[in-house]
Amino acid sequence: MDGHDSPPTPKGSLRKFLEQLSGAGKAIGVLTSGGDAQGMNAAVRAVVRMGIYVGAKVYFIYEGYQGMVDGGSNIVEADWESVSSILQVGGTIIGSARCQDFRSREGRLKAACNLVQLGITSLCVIGGDGSLTGAHIFRTEWSGLLEELARDGKISTEQVQKHGHLNVVGMVGSIDNDFCGTDMTIGTDSALHRIIEVVDAIMTTAQSHQRTFVLEVMGRHCGYLALVSALACGADWVFLPESPPEEGWQENMCVKLSENRARKKRLNIIIVAEGAIDTQNKPITSEQIKELVVTQLGYDTRVTILGHVQRGGTPSAFDRILASRMGVEAVVALLEATPETPACVVSLSGNQAVRLPLMECVQMTQEVQKAMDERRFKDAVQLRGRSFENNLNTYKRLAIKLPDSEIPNSNCNVGVVNVGAPAAGMNAAVRAAVRVGISEGHKMFAVYDGFEGFAKGQIKEIGWGDVGGWTGQGGSILGTKRTLPGKYLEDIAAQIRTHSINALLIIGGFEAYLGLLELLAAREKHEEFCVPMVMVPATVSNNVPGSDFSIGADTALNTITDTCDRIKQSASGTKRRVFIIETMGGFCGYLANMGGLAAGADAAYIFEEPFDIRDLQSNVEHLTEKMKTSIQRGLVLRNENCSENYTTDFIYQLYSEEGKGVFDCRKNVLGHMQQGGAPSPFDRNFGTKISARAMQWISSKLRESAGKGKKFLSDDSVCVLGISKRKLLFQPVAELKKETDFEHRIPKEQWWLKLRPLMKILAKYKVSFEVSDASQLEPVQPRGPEEPAAI
């Protein structure tokens, strides 16, 4: 990839380029410690490859801190190929152990001695808060340890001077997501995948027998997995350590379960975190809950304890991308560190990589435990962060229907419609909208089959129970069409009059965005369209202006990643084979680019980064070189519309011809499997939360005008709700017009393009790489007035 891979940097831009960062003469040690988590291998791979890329030496430290203390064959230099084919493997290939020795000063002396002998003065630690605290202690003691080693004659005084400082960067690998300061820890998303797979499977059998299932998930001190899986499967009740049920919960829960049965629901799901407690800090066990349901209600009840299944399996696409980004960022942080730099953690805020002071995060994490021990549960929930709090509030609103007498009637009717191609997670969004709408006192109307159905009057009132069990369903239950409203404006206006619809929620992709623009333009002619309208982005292509993510893209990405894993494995026997895989996305290269990052592709061709025959030639040469190593297979992704003439067939034929005698080629078009399937936990959760938020916006708009009968004429009453960097934002469609490339149906600026160099570096191309937006440490969680976009 020669001249044109990254846009020139604007003059006066303070961003550092990697050229100035050299790792020459540096030695980095990488270890995984504490409980394992899926995605740790992706992090190890990124650290090793990025380290080698900048000219540093990278050492594997096997078996966590134990290997550091034992030394010898436990500390081994890694090369490029030692991390090949580990991206899709769960757990950690360098092993992890709980280490008693390292807790003593003797142990740490041995460890320091082993590191100094190899000149390792930069440590990258992947683990939970215990492992990171250990690293911090080690760093503060370092110079003292070296002096003691020199006095005992174990190392020379030159070594003490040369290696006088230890720099530490941490990454949090933990399935519990129990670390403050980071939105998602490595492994959490994969653990949710395991839980949701099990819940989906259990739901079908529970449905058959009208059973109640009590599911116990991991999380000794943190209820994140329990909470999010309850949100993602619409569980009837959830038990968390941070938010114990109020006194008398036994009664309340049984009433709730029997009400649900009375609403024709054939099954009940109760989710319990293993660390669940009551307000007196006494444990609440799954067996206790089962006994209660059986004795009080006489329901056929079963307990399923998920246990270590949650730690196993292959990492999800989200975890692979997260870990790869964090790994590269960790190496950059180590290269930039000075003796004064405090130990830091690289973590995720919204979708941005940030660095935070390690000890502040650890202290905050310990504060949560302290708050729980002292029964200050409100504080515990708040300390967990705003996203945890939002999840909890959303869950309560969607799970428990207040009696009609307690819901104030707003006398407003709100329509919900799906537009465009189906995307996994649309149904979760509809369910959330309907239930939040009902809880705010509106009448909710479902519009079937997009704008076309709207015009034909396919509109029905939809109730709380009608959307039960929708979160796990793929596709679009309401039905969706790509038709734009332009040619049906008269009819749609008439339907809005007939059903006196006061607001509209549109869930869909680029067509929904275009449709919204058409409805806005039609306000002059038809006053019916002078109502609040908001769009929630849902499309596998992730090409909606105004949002960094759209519902359905994560599910499609996982489909692509799983398929690439299988395809790569099929080559493990035949050797020397290159696969060319075509992904969807229209002109938007998101799926090809991120799929390439998650599957470890050698190249990804996308429309946003023009390429010519020289680039194709250099990719073929790159693969030819690769075939000489022990990694004898290649993977190339191509976005369906990346080039009019360099079609998938053309690239396949070119590679076949140029690779003659070196490698053979196969091609695969993934097609519509990317739109189908059960939604991933991310899409269920994202769809639920963003749609609930959209409904609250509609309610506040309607409250403003209540009783005044005023028309909504301003542009800010027609919005797209999206995630932008770290915030949830409502942006008027009229303002988004200038940010849109209408011909190619993509936003003019796309955040993920800055991850392109990442994929190329990890595939061994020379590129210039822009370091994270802020290489400074940030304070932990400054609480601004804006809404955090943690998902």
Topology of helices and strands:
Elements (H helix, E strand, L loop, with lengths): L26 E6 L7 H14 L3 E5 L2 H7 L4 E3 L27 H14 L3 E6 L1 H23 L5 H6 L4 E6 L15 H22 L2 E6 L6 H10 L3 E3 L9 H14 L5 E6 L12 H12 L3 E5 L11 H20 L7 E6 L2 E6 H16 L3 H7 L2 H14 L13 E7 L6 H14 L3 E5 L2 H7 L2 E3 L27 H10 L4 E6 L1 H12 L11 E5 L15 H22 L2 E7 L6 H10 L3 E3 L7 H15 L5 E7 L8 H11 L5 E6 L11 H25 L12 E7 L2 E6 H4 L3 E2 L4 E2 L8 H7 L29
Parallel strand pairs: 1-2, 1-4, 4-5, 5-10, 6-8, 6-9, 7-8, 12-13, 12-15, 15-16, 16-21, 17-19, 17-20, 18-19
Antiparallel strand pairs: 2-3, 10-11, 13-14, 21-22, 23-24
Helix pairs in contact: 1-10, 2-3, 3-4, 4-11, 6-7, 7-13, 7-22, 10-19, 11-12, 14-22, 15-16, 18-19
Question: What would you note in describing this structure?
Answer:
The protein is an alpha/beta fold. It has four domains: 27-185 and 315-370, Rossmann fold (3-Layer(aba) Sandwich); 189-310, Rossmann fold (3-Layer(aba) Sandwich); 406-538 and 685-743, Rossmann fold; 553-675, 3-Layer(aba) Sandwich (Rossmann fold). The chain has 24 helices and 24 strands. The strands form five sheets. Strands 3-2-1-4-5-10-11 form a seven-stranded mixed β-sheet, sandwiched between helices. A seven-stranded mixed β-sheet has the order 14-13-12-15-16-21-22, sandwiched between helices. Helix 3 (105-118) packs across helix 4. The longest helix has 25 residues, at 681-705. The two termini are 35 Å apart. The relative contact order is 0.11. Residues 1-16 and 782-788 have low confidence and may be disordered.
